[in-house]
What we know:
The structure holds 2 protein chains of 2 kinds. In chain A, 63% of the residues lie in helices and 0% in strands. Chain A has 10 helices and no strands. In chain A, helix 3 packs antiparallel against helix 4 (74-90), helix 4 crosses helix 5 (101-121) and helix 8 (166-178) packs across helix 10. Residues 1-25 and 123-137 of chain A have low confidence and may be disordered. Chain B folds into 2 domains: 1-97 and 112-143, no CATH class; 163-250, Immunoglobulins (Immunoglobulin-like). Helices cover 38% and strands 17% of the residues of chain B. In chain B, strands 2, 4, 5, 7, 8 and 9 form a 6-stranded mixed sheet that branches. Residues 95-158 of chain B have low confidence and may be disordered. The interface between A and B is large, with 111 and 104 residues.
Amino acid sequence: xxxxxxxxxxSCSTPAxxxxxxxxxxxxxxxxxADLVSNHLAAxxxxxxxxxxxxxxxxxxxxxxxxxxxxxxxxxxxxLAQGVFLKAQRYLGSFRGDSKxxxxxxxxxxxxCLNYLRSRSxxxxxxxxxxxxxxxxxxESRPENVFEFRSSVQAARALLDRELTNVEKRVFTLHxxxxxxxxxxxxxxxxxxxxxxxxxxxxxxRKLARALQRWRACERLNA
Amino acid sequence: MAEAEARSRERSLLRKALSPSYxxxxxxxxxxLADGSLARPAAAPxxxxxxxxxxxxxxxxxxxxxxxAAPRPDExxxxxxxxxxxxxxxxxxxxxxxxxxxHHGAALPRRSRFMALNVGGFxxxxxTLAAAVAIGLREGRAxxxxxxxxxxxxxxxxxxxxxxxPAGDLDAPPNxxxxxxxxxxxxxxxxxxxxxxxxLWSAETHDASIALPPAVRARIVPGKPLLWEVVAKDAAGRGxxxxxxxxxxxxx
Lengths: 223, 252
């Protein structure tokens, strides 16, 4: 995997000015990610210095893998990943060293990928298609039976937290909070069950519907 | 009809319930929590929040997935192919200096400066982080640890800009680019690009839309996909948000 291990860590006990003592770049691998950023910026930050190339080389695999999982298509993933690295190159000066470079890159990757998904979902209503496909003729978990009387955000949060498993919460959060299509969630979370995120969405909605039924029954008893 | 309304109501409620709250951690903070580098005063309340927050737990899971991302067998070929293309692209773009050039120059003050400031400045400012956050893909709220030079790239936070048009397949060349305004933006920088990111046109504006000049519209031909993006800037000219690249084309 590119970019892992201690060399990717932010802290480095060796002063960066000593870390670049080789004139042939042979010790590039010994530099931390933060050293590579510092050297690149100290050299002017323009173009593609050897430090920038080395920095990017360490992170190609994780960024590309992520973009591939989001896009589900090689060409689109290439465009996405290229956009991430161009953005990183352009704004490397904003990296302030208070996080790992990989975390900083993740935040750029995440933002680019969400924007990509939003631009695609504006072309067609894939989200509702996802839900409709996931819930064929299932009266128990139709929308009117879920959250019908739960118009409070706080109550919804509490219900989700109490009733759902961790994986179901993640699927719900990505799908409803970030509009991420179910197929993409399946790839991002590495879900290996046959129907991926759809199965978790269906089971979660059934649980919520049942919880609401119990809640209504209690209300009737108390009335 | 009733079902559609119920679905819309449900989606709206769930979106609110599952969107980041003011207390949610940014990706950078989550990274700091995960690797233990987040300053202690900020870490405790944030950790309490994260442990009980579905949104933050999801973000943490994604961050870990990203950090450990290795291609699965069915992804290996595509990842290798893309990585090779990227490596070639960024190697070809290399016109940078050799290591010796930097070595003979001044020491590298930037790193020293931000590492030194990291100890004191970050600890003080981090204590206020939990209460002083904004919603969304928030990043860059940690204290400024190094002053950018006049020539340094702008600070760009990762909050997004929602673009309105153009997007997708169009019947005719768009007359303008439109996006949702941001309250923290004093101006916007827009760029229209070919799919290989070669710039066709760029401009600055104070509004949340800008007209495309006739010369640019003339270059938008049927079937040819193009990209555009907008960067919001604050009064100091620093980037505060970007839209990501939006695709559009005229139907053939």
